[in-house]
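This week, study the protein below.
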Amino acid sequence: MKRRALIQAGALLTVSAVASGARASEKAEPAAAPFLNLPGMGLPVITDGRVRNYVFIVLKLHLGPAYAVEAVRAKEAHLRDALVRAGHRTPFVLPNTWVALDTAALSASLIRSASTLIGRGAVTRVEVVSQTPRRRTGMQGV
C-alpha cells in the first residue's frame, strides 16, 4: 500500500514540476513584435531609360508597437502602389547588376510611404525576404 502511494506521489511531483517549468518559460518570453508579410511584388530594373529586368520581391514589414496588423493590412494596397510608383520614378538599381535591387533604398522608401499613408512609426523596419529576378542573367560589370 505504501509503495503505491509513493509511486503516485512521485508521479504528481513530476507532473507539477514540468507544469511549473512550462509556466516559467512562458512568462520569460517577451511578446513578439507584430509584422506583416507583403508577398510577390515585381519592381523594375531601369537603366538608361530602358526596363532591363524585373525583380520579384517578398517583404516582411515590422510594425510599431502602437499599430495593429489589421490596421496596416487595410492599407496594404496603398503601400504596394506607393512602392511600385517609387520604383518607376527612381529605380532601386544597384550599379553593377540587373538581377538584384538596392534593399536599403527600397526599405527607406517604403518606411517614408508608410509614415505618410498610415502614420509615423507604423513600419519600423522592412526586411527583404527574397529577391527573384525574371531574367537570371544581366550586366555584371561594365
